[in-house]
Design a protein that fits this description.
heterodimer, A: about 260 residues, alpha/beta, six-stranded mixed beta sheet, four-stranded antiparallel beta sheet, 10 strands, about 20% strand, B: about 210 residues, mainly alpha, MetI-like fold, 9 helices, binds adenosine-5'-triphosphate, binds magnesium ion
Chain lengths: ~260, ~210
């Protein structure tokens, strides 16, 4: 069985930059995994994701999805098969919530009944009553509700791979915790491969079946949360784990 | 002055209609050409760097000089006038069209692209609807400019309200001068008002704080 995602020696350098944004990266992810990508700002997380749906082209190396080299695939068709939640949500302000979610099904020319049913199903799944929210505009939703719509929109055509770039970035911690739970439940119910970018260490360890820790375009460690905590690969990773522990201790004091 | 209108109201109406006709024909041709330039600029980085600069250079040529340049090619009359007007409009329209398209939040175009929307679909389904206001504004500015430059075009026998104004100037007839300029100003104000109203309406329907 082919890997869901395979990176072979992938490098990406932006013009005018001295450093590789993504530097000789190798990894594989299996179908159904929930992989979180953790790293500080500018370490190449977004770049890595965007190479998977070919918003960026790698300079060297190969990216293979389910055994197929993506460089030989039509980028538009490829993108319609991958769910993508961008860092800034990016809902279409002139379209209703329903039309936003129906975007990819419409591009794929689904029957209207099928699309409508799918929109309602996804809204329900996202915890938004279809009758109430279907015909609203994005501006009429709270930040958290917009994030949910962004997620529903990415899931619309039932993609096998989901790329989530800090989908809970601009959300208060209570709503965030709830959305994290919902996302886990959602992931458990389907056989999709999730690549979830965050720079919040707790979020990464709570959600990921495996966590990829990146720094300056490299993968420092890619393992289960337990293994990373028990056996940090290097100084950077142990200081990261230590910083999370410290925070924990801070809260312990008030118990 | 009132006497003049009472006697020559048919002339005035004919000139005003002629003027309006020039404005509308110019608008249609200008929109077609500007749409072409806009699409070119959307698709090609080189075009988007070259075309606006070129058009602004052409726009800075005074209209009388432009008429003089074209008369050897297309002769006196309406064709030359409309040609000049269409050329001027390109700068005004493209300026506003591109500003509207570029003013769209980058995250929106990126989300669209990441979902597998083709550049043409993005233009039609997302970018155009989101920049309607800038489009109407561009059309308004271009049409008002057309009304005034079309008045000057009477000097090359293009007809319209300018004919009355220039007749008045030649024969020292104040009634003609006043009616010619007054009607041309009124026409400009009318078009400006109508399109401003349209812009406002769009504003209300797209600031989505009211339920549809
Ligand atoms: N379009 C671009 N052109 C030039 N340089 C870029 C571009 N996109 C990213 N970079 C550079 O590549 C590096 C990695 O950027 P990237 O966006 O992948 O970081 P990130 O890990 O997603 O950061 P953040 O957590 O802030 O979103 C950075 O140094 C950034 O400046
Ligand atoms: Mg990023």
């Amino acid at each position: 069985m082919a890997h869901a995602i395979e990176f072979q020696n992938v490098t990406k350098t932006f013009q005018g930059s001295l450093r590789n944004a993504v530097d000789h990266i190798n990894f594989t992810a299996e179908e159904g995994e929930f992989i979180t990508i953790l790293g500080s700002s500018g370490c190449g997380k977004t770049t890595l994701l965007k190479m998977i749906n070919r918003l960026y082209e790698p300079d060297t190396g190969k990216i293979i999805l389910f055994g197929e080299d993506i460089s030989s695939m039509n980028p538009v068709k490829l993108r319609r098969r991958i769910g993508y939640v961008i860092q800034q949500i990016g809902l279409f302000p002139h379209m209703t919530v329903g039309s936003n979610i129906a975007m990819v099904p419409n591009l794929l020319k689904w029957e209207k009944e099928k699309t409508d049913a799918r929109v309602d199903q996804l809204l329900t799944m996202a915890g938004l009553a279809p009758e109430e929210y279907r015909n609203r505009y994005p501006a009429q939703l709270s930040g958290g509700q917009q994030q949910r719509v962004g997620l529903a929109r990415a899931l619309a055509a039932d993609p096998k791979i989901m790329l989530l770039d800090e989908p809970f970035g601009a959300i208060d911690s209570i709503t965030r915790a709830r959305l994290q739970e919902e996302l886990l439940t959602l992931h458990r119910g389907m056989k999709k491969t999730f690549l979830f970018v965050t720079h919040d260490i707790e979020e990464a360890f709570k959600l990921g079946t495996r966590v990829m820790i990146m720094n300056e375009g490299h993968i420092l460690q890619f393992d289960t949360p337990e293994q990373i905590i028990l056996h940090p690969a290097d100084g950077f990773v142990s200081s990261l784990v230590e910083s999370a522990r410290e925070k924990e201790r801070f809260w312990e004091k008030f118990k | 002055m009132i006497d003049y209108m009472a006697k020559h109201y048919d002339d005035l109406i004919r000139a005003a209609l002629e003027h309006l006709q020039i404005v509308l024909i110019t608008l249609l041709l200008s929109l077609a050409l500007a749409a072409f330039f806009t699409i070119l600029c959307v698709y090609s980085k080189t075009a988007s760097r070259m075309i606006p600069g070129l058009l602004s250079m052409i726009y800075s040529i005074p209209s009388l000089a432009m008429f003089a340049l074209l008369i050897p090619l297309t002769g006196l009359g309406r064709t030359t006038a409309i040609l000049v007007l269409v050329i001027y409009n390109q700068y005004l329209l493209l300026q506003n069209f591109l500003a509207g398209l570029n003013g769209i939040d980058k995250s929106i175009s990126e989300a669209a692209m990441g979902m597998g929307v083709t550049p043409m679909q993005a233009l039609v389904k997302i970018k155009l609807p989101l920049s309607r206001k800038a489009f109407i504004a561009g059309i308004r500015i271009a049409m008002v400019a057309t009304v005034s430059i079309a008045t000057i075009a009477a000097s090359i026998n293009a007809g319209g309200l300018g004919t009355i104004l220039f007749d008045g100037l030649r024969t020292m007839n104040p009634a003609k001068i006043i009616w010619g300029s007054l009607l041309s100003a009124l026409l400009a104000l009318l078009i400006d008002g109508l399109l401003r109203f349209a812009e406002k309406r769009l504003d209300h329907s797209s600031t989505s704080c009211s339920l549809p």
